Task: inverse folding
């Protein structure tokens, strides 16, 4: 594929405000960052929301509404809403964005893993707040639950709203989960996979793992669309590998707070501009939002509920 879909993961639920002064927190900051990412070539913005007072990740529908309506009023970027929510959120709270906003695209975590962030607290250069210490620290004993029952129920919400799931695949067994759900008719084609690499508790971000995951998915699932994101310092190298392999890419402050070694990213747009430049050097042109809609088989912006 000559066209590449660039996703910007705007704020996420992993990093905390004490880790970077540039992490967007308020609805306006998150919306502004999504629009700036669009202006630099992103076709998709992956959206989480946070408590605007302290930056804590939350699953608040009114905060989501502020963000999505603001972005939609300014550009036609595809909004991929999270169903991961904040760590520890209930299943009902996580999937609420799908039947509330009927988005074109939403994340869909396709299996349970240990999702660990506690090790970040060892960084003596960061002065964490009390909620940050508690939030990050609890992940030493945290399982990110995505059971077969949860996945079946999620599929129903996605199908009812004609929302395309972006399957977040952190580990090899999740490919098998997808094959099972396809076979049972719960998951529909076309399939769109995001290979998520480098999270403590899941697969390391290596070229060997990416190639093995891709080939396993191809052998197991047949045809599918795919993208790659990777944690921290692995972000650009794994995305560059995906570009060479014909895949799509995700950058953004959710995954990595740096632009390069020792240089803090001041915005999501900086990371988007960097991966777009690399893509063009490799002969890949960034897809527009409407081109990405066709590539992924999305229902269109006129059919969302915001």
Result:
């Amino acid at each position: 594929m000559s066209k590449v879909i660039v996703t910007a993961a705007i704020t996420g639920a992993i990093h905390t405000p004490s880790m970077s002064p540039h992490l967007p927190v308020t609805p306006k900051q998150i919306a502004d960052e999504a629009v700036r990412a669009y202006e630099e070539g992103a076709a998709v913005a992956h959206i989480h929301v946070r408590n605007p007072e302290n930056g804590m990740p939350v699953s608040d529908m009114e905060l989501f509404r502020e963000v999505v309506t603001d972005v939609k009023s300014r550009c036609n970027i595809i909004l991929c809403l999270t169903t991961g929510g904040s760590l520890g959120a209930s299943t009902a709270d996580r999937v609420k964005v799908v039947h509330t906003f009927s988005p074109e695209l939403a994340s869909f975590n396709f299996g349970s893993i240990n999702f660990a962030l506690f090790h970040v607290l060892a960084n003596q250069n960061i002065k964490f707040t009390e909620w940050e210490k508690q939030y990050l620290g609890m992940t030493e004993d945290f399982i990110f639950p995505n059971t077969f029952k949860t996945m079946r129920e999620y599929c129903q919400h996605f199908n009812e709203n004609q929302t395309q799931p972006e399957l977040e695949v952190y580990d090899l067994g999740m490919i098998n989960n997808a094959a099972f759900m396809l076979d049972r008719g719960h998951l529909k084609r076309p399939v769109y996979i995001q290979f998520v690499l480098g999270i403590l508790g899941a697969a390391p971000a290596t070229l060997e793992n990416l190639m093995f995951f891709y080939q396993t998915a191809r052998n197991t699932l047949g045809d599918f669309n795919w993208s790659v994101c990777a944690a921290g310092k692995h972000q650009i190298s794994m995305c560059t590998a995906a570009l060479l392999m014909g895949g799509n890419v995700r950058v953004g402050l959710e995954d990595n707070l740096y632009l390069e070694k020792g240089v803090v990213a001041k915005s999501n747009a900086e990371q988007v501009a960097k991966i777009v430049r690399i893509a063009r050097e490799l002969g890949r042109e960034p897809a527009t939002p409407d081109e990405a809609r066709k590539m992924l088989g999305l229902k269109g912006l006129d059919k969302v509920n915001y």
